[in-house]
Amino acid sequence: MIINHPLLGPRDSAEFTYLGDASMIHRPNWEADDAVAQFAEYGYQRANPAGLHRELWFHEGGDRSWLVITRDTTTHEITSVEMARDVARAEGRTK
Amino acid sequence: MRYSAFKVIKEALTGHRGWGPAWRDVDPQPEYDTIIIGGGGHGLATAYYLAKVYGGKRIAVIEKGWIGGGNVGRNTTIIRSNYLLDGNEPFYEFSLKLWEGLEQDLNYNAMVSQRGILNLIHTDAQRDAFIRRGNAMMLNGADADLLTTAQIKKRYPFLNTENARFPIKGGLAQHRGGTVRHDAVAWGYARGADQLGVDIIQNCEVTGFVIENGVCKGVQTSRGTIKAKKVASCVAGSSSRVMEKAGMRLPIESHVLQAFVSEGLKPLLPGVITFGAGHFYCSQSDKGGLVFGGDIDGYNSYAQRGNLPVVEDVCEGGMAIFPMLGRARLLRMWGGIMDMSMDGSPIIDKTHIDGLYFNGGWCYGGFKATPASGYVYAHLLANDAPHPTATAYRFDRFAKGLMIDEKGMGNQPNLH
Fold first, then answer.
1. Distant-in-sequence, close-in-space partners of A12: CB < 8 Å, separation ≥ 6
2. Which helix (H) or strand (E) holds B9?
3. What is the average pLDDT score of chain B?
4. What superfamily in CATH does domain A2-90 come from?
5. ipTM for the complex?
6. How far apart are CA B32 and CA B37, in angstroms?
7. I need a surface site. Which of B97, B157, B305, B413 has the fewest CB within 10 A?
8. How far out from the chain centre does Cα B239 lie?
9. What domains can be seen in chain B, in order of their start residue?
10. Could A53 and B253 be called an inter-chain contact, meaning their C-beta atoms sit closer than 8 Å?
């Protein structure tokens, strides 16, 4: 797979490591009443779709940036690559 | 029809006109006691043991494609019970014992070959860990044998024991481990289940579940709605896709694992060798091909094919330990889809929906578990309580912090 890095252009996927579903950007609030249940869900349950999947990749062998990649899990075709910090800020994360 | 030497001779003399199909091709009935979704090794074994050991009646196995066309048809055929943790080892040893009696039980030649498996050791720390694992295995009634480099050299003279980065300092052997003819496992269980009255329904895809007031009462399929008192999912690789139809999210990611076969060679590799540090393992099939593999690709995939970096990684590992591999040409390579669970261990449990049961999360280790997986799943279906060797394989172990994490990697499926 070739990952079209927003800053560095097309890079071999072997330079990257994979974390998983991009919903992990949104860590639950530890002060919530049901924080234990929320963290169990956050830590262990996954949608695992067959089709488009938004996922976190880390450019370990490159500029060490986190990316949010939209990829089809049935074909491995990558349709979008974004900087994870831009995605996180746009989705309301402040830190 | 029972297979025997007498039958083979009789058929040879009469032009082989007396062999019938090994199982019936049936249309679905409107209702069953138990429906097992997935006609792979585990699903067929479940049906077989449910009918044979637990007296189950009116059982159907429904399969989207043809039986044995999923992971039981695309694995590297290794059987072993060399696990460390209490939640795993009794189960896998139970499975190995079932393998040892399988062919007599099924009256079917599954080519079970206990040619031994060897895990290579490269450092003192690794030797300590392997001694601990060997002791845990023996405490659970399995066999384990710590070999010196000289003993390994005697059996495998071609191994490169002097690799600069990973010199071979010994190995942990399980002599009762080995290989099995994988397709024959599916066919043998299918034939055995069919003879006990199980309906095996192929080309029948599950499109939904019939759930009324929190109780599962059957499945919707591409061949109509089929009612059932109990519905048992057994579709590792596609677990999330099937259970999503019942509104469930699972502690599982689907990943692709590649495997490779070389051209056929003269017999040279008598057992199974795993070079864990180099992400490579290898055995030789009875046809002569070297069957080998390594790590999963490491990203979610349902594509049944992988990418080239892992091909390179596996072949580099092979060349490091096994330099003559470079003279063999690669004949075939393929990918299979694994249910990678959050702790690297499987789940065999009831769901929160009454009448709906789940078996999955086998990671890349489902083949060796086939007989025991079927047996304990049948036990769960018959008794609504787990088999004594499978009490740890529960859904709630993640929320409760009771992970069965052999490698100690945490909730990162691509690292198990």
1. A2, A3, B309
2. helix B5-13
3. 96
4. Folate-binding superfamily (3.30.2270.10)
5. 0.96
6. 13
7. B157
8. 15
9. 5-77+182-248+344-415 (3.50.50.60), 88-179+253-341 (3.30.9.10)
10. no
